[in-house]
């Protein structure tokens, strides 16, 4: 079981308030992702839950037990670090066995659990190597192995994929998601990459400057962002924001439309512009369009075979049902 | 780096330094070997100009046969071993302390390093006269304050006193190297160990100490090289009396007090052999840390 409840948790470093008092509940078995730009306090929040930092005020309950004054080891959590933090002088086997040795389990039990973890993570043949002899992905798996042998109440991941190359990252993303399905244990995952957040999460917590902007499932955030910040942060490429006349026509301070919700056409459309850079990904093409008279450059997603070139004139039609309206506070105006 | 031309150019450029160093080492070594096979007593009229008598291995046999030889080897090893143990253990503890953030860190660090800047002769005299003097020394006053009989350090505990003085000199070196080693430890490793349930002592034993092993090896190797030849500290304190005669000091006495250059040179060759034996042992013991 691993329900985690944060109640008015606050963190200050000296006079600087990094996290103003916040409330958050993470249900048992949920895959929760903390996402936000760098410096938004997401790692600090994770470290508060882990116990590596002390809360300034507020309480953290794990499984209904007050833990904000317990040392990290007593909270029943396991953490995977960004740098993996493997012990370089120990073999993979000893690395994975370390938490069990510290818990003074008997040797037979340790061997059994290490063997199980190694099998789950495909590490069996590397057990006698040292971390220095492994590739980035394998080190990552050892770090996960060291976390799962303890059978913790919850796993904490601190940007675990940021040191891997793009191809490996996609693979590890799947492996971690699959691990979550198999173990059905609470996981909290910190990342600045909204693609990781969208693909893996049951629940996304969007943080900005220590404040929770919105909590919800990936599609909820995509469809109904609560404010300007969330709308801009979730979704790739970013949502286009238009202010000025076009917005006031719709009784809003700013309107937002995602690149994938704009139709392109050669002949007719609501807006016209000139194609700037076009990025061809094969499956999709992203056009960056200037001179629309709407302010900034617009980004538009079209089918991969659509063939506008640099300098071509293009006509755009936004899907009106997909337009998000925001007031002057940045809050979304509901329908 | 790789072309034929650049390699031969590099050799040309390095040649002067290599030749100078080789000469620097080879000339004294050859002279020592040369004199060790000769009878050379300057006060009895022997001189290089008149030609020296070849005596074969007689100097070597006499040097080992002397009743001072084995005690001097023992004293050397005890001093080197004692200083190594004290500096490494205290060095680790001091490094751990200095690694903690604290007020006045910069000044404390400079204070810790300062003994290293004191010349061996000076520190020997300071210890002898200021601390260990049985009448006016600070330690004597301390003993008397508690009503105890002051220890006559340099005669009653002579070897221990020398070890104490030399350790005081070399502790900064060990502390400094070990401190940099501790500072290079990735803090996430310690946090991971903390999450894994390792208390402070176990974190030290399983994470910090293995991380420092390479630095400890370096400290031991470098200190051994220098400690085998300590001289000034003994010269100004006990002058080799009370069982503090090391091999280096014995050689000094043979050459300068007995004015027997041949015998001293033979001792010098033994010192080279001893240094190499110790070095080989150390390399074997700690060498695997230096891969």
Question: What features would you describe in this structure?
Answer:
The complex is a heterodimer of chains A (335) and B (291). Chain A is of the alpha+beta class and 335 residues long. Chain A has two domains: 4-231, P-loop containing nucleotide triphosphate hydrolases (Rossmann fold); 238-326, Beta Barrel (OB fold (Dihydrolipoamide Acetyltransferase, E2P)). Helices cover 26% and strands 31% of the residues of chain A. In chain A, the strands form four sheets. Chain A has a six-stranded mixed β-sheet with strand order 6-7-8-3-9-10, with helices on both faces. In chain A, strands 13-17-14-15-16 form a five-stranded antiparallel β-sheet, with no helix packed on it. Chain A has a four-stranded antiparallel β-sheet with strand order 2-1-4-5, covered by helices on one side. Chain A is globular. The mean pLDDT of chain A is 88. Chain B is globular, with a radius of gyration of 24 Å. Chain B has one domain (4-290): Orthogonal Bundle (MetI-like fold), CATH 1.10.3720.10. Chain B is built from 13 helices and two strands; from the N terminus they run H-E-E-H-H-H-H-H-H-H-H-H-H-H-H. Helices cover 73% and strands 1% of the residues of chain B. Chain B has helices at residues 4-36, 58-65, 69-99, 105-113, 120-131, 138-145, 153-156, 158-183, 187-195, 200-227, 232-237, 247-257, 261-286; strands at 38-39, 53-54. By secondary structure, chain B is mainly alpha-helical. At the A-B interface, strand 6 and helix 2 of A face helix 9 and helix 10 of B.
């Amino acid at each position: 079981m691993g329900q985690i409840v944060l109640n008015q948790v606050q963190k200050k470093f000296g006079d600087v308030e990094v996290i103003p008092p916040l409330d958050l509940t993470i249900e048992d078995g949920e895959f929760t992702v903390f996402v936000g730009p760098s410096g938004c306090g997401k790692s600090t929040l994770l470290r508060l839950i882990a116990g590596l930092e002390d809360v300034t005020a507020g309480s953290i309950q794990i499984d209904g037990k007050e833990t904000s004054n317990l040392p990290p080891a007593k909270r029943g959590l396991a953490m995977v670090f960004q740098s993996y933090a493997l012990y370089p002088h120990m073999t993979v086997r000893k690395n994975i066995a370390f938490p069990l040795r510290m818990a003074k389990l008997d040797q037979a039990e340790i061997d059994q659990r290490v063997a199980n973890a190694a099998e789950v993570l495909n590490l069996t043949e590397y057990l006698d190597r040292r971390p220095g002899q492994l590739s980035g992905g394998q080190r990552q798996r050892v770090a996960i192995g060291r976390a799962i042998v303890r059978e913790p109440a919850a796993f904490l991941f601190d940007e675990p994929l940021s040191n891997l190359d793009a191809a490996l990252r996609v693979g590890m993303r799947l492996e971690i998601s699959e691990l979550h399905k198999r173990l059905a244990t609470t996981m909290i995952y910190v990342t600045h990459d909204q693609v990781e957040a969208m693909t893996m999460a049951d629940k996304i917590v969007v943080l900005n400057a220590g404040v929770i902007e919105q909590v919800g499932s990936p599609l909820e955030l995509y469809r109904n962002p609560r404010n300007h910040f969330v709308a801009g942060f979730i979704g790739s490429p970013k949502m286009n924001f238009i202010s000025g006349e076009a917005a006031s026509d719709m009784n809003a301070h700013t309107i937002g439309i995602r690149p994938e919700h704009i139709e392109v056409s050669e002949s007719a459309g609501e807006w016209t512009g000139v194609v700037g850079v076009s990025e061809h990904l094969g499956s999709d093409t992203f056009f960056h369009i200037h001179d629309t008279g709407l302010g900034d450059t617009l980004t538009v997603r079209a089918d991969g075979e659509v063939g506008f070139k640099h300098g071509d004139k293009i006509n755009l039609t936004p899907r009106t049902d997909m337009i998000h309206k925001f007031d002057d506070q940045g809050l979304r105006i509901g329908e | 780096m790789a072309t034929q031309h650049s390699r031969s150019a590099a050799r040309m450029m390095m040649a002067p330094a290599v030749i100078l160093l080789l000469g620097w080492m080879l000339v004294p070594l050859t002279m020592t070997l040369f004199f060790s096979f000769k009878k050379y007593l300057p006060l009895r009229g022997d001189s290089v100009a008149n030609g020296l008598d070849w005596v074969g291995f007689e100097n070597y046999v006499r040097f080992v046969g002397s009743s001072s030889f084995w005690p001097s080897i023992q004293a050397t090893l005890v001093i080197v071993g004692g200083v190594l143990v004290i500096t490494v253990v205290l060095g680790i503890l001091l490094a751990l302390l200095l690694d903690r953030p604290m007020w006045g860190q910069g000044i404390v660090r400079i204070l810790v390093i300062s003994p290293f800047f004191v010349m061996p002769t000076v520190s020997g005299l300071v210890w002898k006269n200021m601390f260990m003097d049985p009448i006016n020394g600070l330690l004597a006053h301390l003993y008397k304050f508690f009503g105890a009989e002051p220890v006559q350090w340099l005669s009653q505990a002579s070897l221990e006193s020398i070890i104490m003085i030399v350790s005081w000199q070399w502790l900064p070196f060990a502390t400094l190297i070990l401190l940099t080693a501790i500072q290079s430890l990735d803090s996430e490793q310690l946090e991971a160990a903390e999450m894994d349930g390792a208390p402070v002592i176990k974190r030290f034993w399983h994470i910090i100490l293995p991380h420092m092993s390479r630095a400890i090896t370096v400290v031991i190797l470098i200190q051994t090289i220098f400690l085998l030849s300590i001289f000034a500290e003994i010269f100004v304190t006990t002058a080799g009396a009370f069982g503090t005669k090391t091999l280096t000091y014995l050689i000094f006495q043979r050459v300068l007090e007995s004015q027997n250059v041949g015998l001293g040179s033979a001792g010098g060759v033994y010192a080279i052999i001893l240094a190499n034996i110790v070095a080989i042992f150390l390399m074997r013991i700690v060498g695997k840390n230096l891969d």
